[in-house]
Amino acid sequence: MRLASAKPGAPAVTPHVSWFHPRSGCRASEARLRVAVVANSFKNKGNTPSSLSVVKGKVVPVGEAERLRGMKDDVSTSTFHRRDMVMLRRACLLSTSTQGDVAPFPFSGCVLVTKKTKVVAETYQYASGTEAAELQGLSLAGKGKSKGATLYLNLEPSYAMGEEASVRSIVESRVARVVIGMENPLVHLRGRAIKALREAGVQVDCLRSHLAGKFDNLVEMGLSSDGSVDFLDSGGDTLEQEMVMTLKLCLETNENLLHCVAKGRPLCVLKYAMTFDGKTASVSGHSAWISGTRSRQLVYRQRALCDCVVVGGETARSDNPNLTTRRDEGHAPTRVVVSRTMDLPLDCNLWDVGMAPTLVITERGAKPELQRSLRGMGVEVIEIEGLSLAKVADHLYDRGFMRALWECGGVMAAPAISEGVISKVMAFVAPKIIGGADAPTPVGDGLGLTKMSDALDVTDIRYQQVDQDVLATGYLPTTTSLFHLAEEAYALARDRSYPEVASSVTCGASSSAIGAEENAVRFYKAWNRYGILSNFFCVPIELDGKMWRSVEHYYQAMKFSNSCSVEAALAMDEIAAQNSAEEAARIGRCLQSSKPSLVRQDWGEAKLEVMRNALECKFRRGTPAWELLHSTCGVGEMPCRLIEYSPRDSFWGEGFDGKGENWLGVMLMDVRDMDGE
User: Fold this and answer.
1) 619-623 contacts: CB < 8 A, separation 24 or more?
2) Using one digit for the tens of pLDDT, what is the confidence trace for 107-143?
3) Which is more confident, 642 or 37?
């Protein structure tokens, strides 16, 4: 996991190979990469790594490069060098190594380069709540190689109560310089690590803040930069242009996070395939297949990059889709069916929760008998009074989802666009013509704009040839562009989706839920404030003579303890071996559902004691986790009430309606208050 392999167990990617641009998929010039990564292989005197550059694919001294370009880098950009941009792009590429294998989270990659420009560590964070990329990199290199080195990070490290390890490790390793692509957009983390490192005497250069402070037209510059390999390797590019392109890649890597901060909703992407004449099906409704095989494979990949896939009742009835990634392993996004009337078939592929979890969202009181039947199959059904697609998007955000792929038909796509839910569009255009005045189109009559001047502009567009099809991707006016999105996110002084409440910090909680109880701390996702309280934040614990990577690993494995079954023992080992709590939970829940005979018979009573033992071990006095837990004692005599805001869990969490038992919060309060006594 610490090496630059795209998947755990794959061969390590060395810095000596040519580099693939993550968006275009094209191979960059080996000469440019070698200048930044392996320039120490040049032995000529005077041609030190810092004095080399590239002009039209040729390696030349910096002075000669400036003469050939007929320009000098502006003094204000002298903090950065071209090799910095190469390394930041490398960090971006590394950060997405597990993208599609795990649920979306803030992606972070790290490259550590010695004073002699030798790459000694390339690492990435595996999943939400796992060890930070910079901690892995510094550990891998050791203090001897870290001293005086430059650390490249695409995303600012976390620095908050209980999460001081990254900054402390950087300072103690005596790294001379840290180059960061972008500040962490989360308000409670933004700029804090940068400030702490500078106060400790470490030089920190942040690309985004540097460019934002220098250029008033950064958004326009970002729109004009296509980020192509040709742009990077052309002889006429400037350092400033390369900096803007590199920043664009940093922003794109964590586009989901930026959108959640700026909008208080997951990034909702509308995907459809249509013919040359704009039809998504024939007059009879037949649509298999409009796009080609490679396009469909790309859609499967896009599903894996999302937390959920959303369709309407019409799609469920007419297409009977699976909406899976077509893989046996890895992240399985939740299938979400939105139906106001619950006019849904009882026999449907989407109800097979063995393939992937399914959530049905409907109007309150709609067909209670069918709801009970679906719940009996393991399908989660929730009712929302006054159901709208905007409320659906808000609920998906409450569940901690960062990205949603909408594969609905035109009837549902129209209100999704008009209500401002959809931010981005992915349109596959196939070289086919089908005709028919009544044949469906990607966006139905619900939008119904009467004048061409009222048409919604799609901006920041990119085109990609996919065999015979063409994929066009762009932003709707709700977002406009990636740089507009970043500008909005960084302009926020506080989290948009929840108000400031006395002693209250939220992690995906809705405003209405928060307002109901002011003296409370709500937690849920590991990357948000108070995320350490979550079982999915990996704090190693030692219990029953064994080390466990997190409370969740231990809890899921204990479901299959107290059994003489070899299969149950293997299940425990498999859970313990998972790299993330997310994967441990997925395997544990799947085995509990598919092989209930393996679960210990007293689990219903024993699980509370199992959880309590794990929490007491995690929150030992003097640990960072204990410090954070103890900080929730509140101001004055009233300690904060701890609430796991989990809309999907009414036993350990608060549940969708806020009436859940919240056993995790209760136990955390017991551990905290017991320690105080």
Assistant:
1) 619/668, 619/671, 619/672, 619/675, 621/675, 623/539
2) 999 999 999 999 999 999 999 999 999 999 999 999 8
3) 642
Alpha-carbon distance of 543 to 614, in angstroms, equals 8
Cis peptide before 626 (omega within 30 of 0): no
In the residue annotation, 582 being an active-site residue is answered as no
Query: What is the residue type of 430?
Result: A
Tell me the backbone φ, ψ of residue 337, rounded to 5 degrees: -115, 120
Q: How far is 135 from 565, CA to CA, in rounded Å?
A: 39
pLDDT digits (tens, 9 = 90+) for 61-73: 444 444 334 333 3
In the 3-class helix/strand/coil scheme, how is 22-35 assigned residue by residue? CCCCCECCHHHHHH
Q: Which of 30, 64, 122, 134 is catalytic?
A: 134
Residues 6+ apart with CB under 8 A from 512: none
pLDDT digits (tens, 9 = 90+) for 220-279: 877 766 544 444 444 446 888 899 999 999 999 999 999 999 999 999 999 999 999 999
Nearest partner of 208 among 176, 233, 243, 235, judged by Cα? 243
Buried b (16+ CB within 10 A) or exposed e, 602-617: ebeeebeebbebbbbb
Task: Note the pLDDT of residue 23.
Answer: 38
CA distance 307 to 548: 26
**Residues 151 and 137: beta-carbon distance below 8 Å:** yes
Position 31 confidence tier, pLDDT thresholds 50, 70, 90: very low
Q: What is the largest CA-CA distance in the chain?
A: 82
